[in-house]
């Protein structure tokens, strides 16, 4: 190894250590208890100026919060049910998605990062849906090949006009790293250890509730009824 190569390697290592140290110091300063995690969290310095991603009515009386991992097969499988509920309940429910990348999946953070980066260009929902739908293509990809798969098999077929240079810059930014850390640390304070984890109006629900369209629909309709909101299905136009 020549001196130039050694210098580059040392610089990269020091840069990575510096970024990790910076991230840890930032997390220590965040007052997570000051946030109402049961509702939509707006953009702030704490979350890298990237607020919650949500679908539905932000003023709805019923809030569904999902902590998930794009690498999680159960998360991918449940998305069709979630999408159906989003369509049916319209403006009576708001659905929030937060990142909770699991350490057992090597591409989890990279997947979350590129979806967040696409979100900065206004296409978060499309990218998230495509990432889950094409999970089998990139799940086991190596670090050297996953970016090519993300771009050519997931992003470009669904968002052909994406700015790729900006995408690459954004996905490696401190802001996106901070957004993902913020989401996960917020989830850890709810004692989350696996995905998907669902909370409805602050109460954790298990797979018996969100595992099928019928059970999810029945739970939401009963909650809406208890709150005095009209029940029944409502398809968005």
Please sum up the structure shown.
The chain has 237 residues and is an alpha+beta fold. It is 51% helix and 11% strand.
Write the layout of secondary structure elements.
Blueprint: H1 3-29, E1 53-56, E2 62-68, H2 73-89, E3 93-99, H3 108-119, H4 124-133, H5 135-138, H6 146-155, H7 164-171, H8 174-188, E4 197-200, E5 203-205, H9 207-210, H10 213-226
Parallel strand pairs: 2-3
Antiparallel strand pairs: 1-3, 2-4, 4-5
Distance between the termini: 62 Å
What percentage of the residues does DSSP assign to strands (E)?
5-15%
Please name the fourth-level CATH homologous superfamily of the largest domain: Glutaredoxin
CATH class descriptor of the largest domain? Alpha Beta
Class computed from helices, strands and strand pairing: alpha+beta
Structure characterization notes:
With 237 residues, this protein is of the alpha+beta class. It has two domains: 1-30; 37-226, 3-Layer(aba) Sandwich (Glutaredoxin), CATH 3.40.30. The protein is 51% helix and 11% strand. It has helices spanning 3-29, 73-89, 108-119, 124-133, 135-138, 146-155, 164-171, 174-188, 207-210, 213-226; strands at residues 53-56, 62-68, 93-99, 197-200, 203-205. The chain has a five-stranded mixed beta sheet, with helices on both faces. Strand 4 (197-200) and strand 5 (203-205) form a beta hairpin. Helix 3 (108-119) packs antiparallel against helix 4 and helix 3 (108-119) packs across helix 8 (174-188). Mean pLDDT is 90; it is low at 7-22.
